[in-house]
Hints:
alpha+beta; 17% strand
Amino acid sequence: MEFREAIKIALQSLWANKLRSVLTLLGVVIGVGSVIAVVTLVNGANVYVAEKIYRYGADVFTVSKQPRVISSYDEYRKFQKRKIIRLEDYQFVLEHCHRCQAVGALQSSTGKVVSGTHSTTDTDIRGWTASMPPMYNLNVILGRSFTPTEEEHNSHVAIIGTDIQDNVLGGNDPLGQEIRVDGVPYTVIGVGEKQGKSFGASQDNWVAVPITAYQRSYGTSKTITVYAKAGSTGEPLNAAVEEVRTLMRSERHNRPGEEDDFNLDTNDSFVGLWNQIAGGFEAVAVAIAGVSLVVGGIVIMNIMLVSVTERTREIGVRKALGAKRSDVMLQFLIESATLSLVGGVFGVIGGIGVAQGVTAALGFPSSLAVWSIFAGLFVATAVGLFFGVYPARKAAMLDPIVALRSEL
């Protein structure tokens, strides 16, 4: 009953002094809300990265001119001096890699797609080998994919994203229709599955053509990325990676002991690097939000000290009626924890709202982690308890006679 009464008194105090309550809990609300928002957004980004990377399969690795993530300008300059990876490198790996279940190649740029009076800009133009659509985990929902013969003969056929179908072809049946990609005509043979938006950008504004036709239009001076599928993770993946490394070094005439002039990346290595970056960002953001919680805790302690002063006579009456020091201390601890917990609840609601607002406005992915809600509420309650100890102890140590003499 005392526990319920203490919570009731705390809530009545909040309701009786609304403005003071808002100002008191503001620090806790901001702190908890910041943590929830950051964790939700970072968790959403983690899910997005994992889905996009592992869409190829955990047993897929890439060979590229430079790593996917470059941490310094010196590294950038170093990688720019490397020879580009050519289609001949891909063909050599394709012919000689015995541990690879599949090998593909990708080259891309941005361009303009036109059909009649309709057009789109900043379209992702992809040059693919015939093996890339299944390796890319692309579901062709209408029509078909490329064939090796079309790749071999530089055929002007294309697979398109749903944005091209809706915005350029007017939503009509696209199969057999002609589109112009940077002025070059292609016949549509397939439509990829809709992927939606991410980070505010559409994932469906793309056109894929055979890489041989792509290079005939855009030239061969830019590097390609080679994709290889090992079949399974673990030792088979490691063996395939080492075999491809050996083949690439042989094809590119790297001397023994000389550093690779190309980069091999597995999905695990990239996801691991991303998790380190995201974890560091999350840690910094949580630390900054922690400052708000400390400020909020100090404000709660200050208000509780004011409350002790305002209720000195009440404390004297309770002690005169037989309340122990522990009873008085427990009452004020429960009140401070309740105050902070209420702030935590509003902080959780606000944090989720901010994260959803960012997702709606910018397309940044968000994914609510249930553990973060409980963690936020626990931390808020802990802050209330920690900063409520001193006011509660001060109330418990009051002399009942002195307290009863206090003026109302």
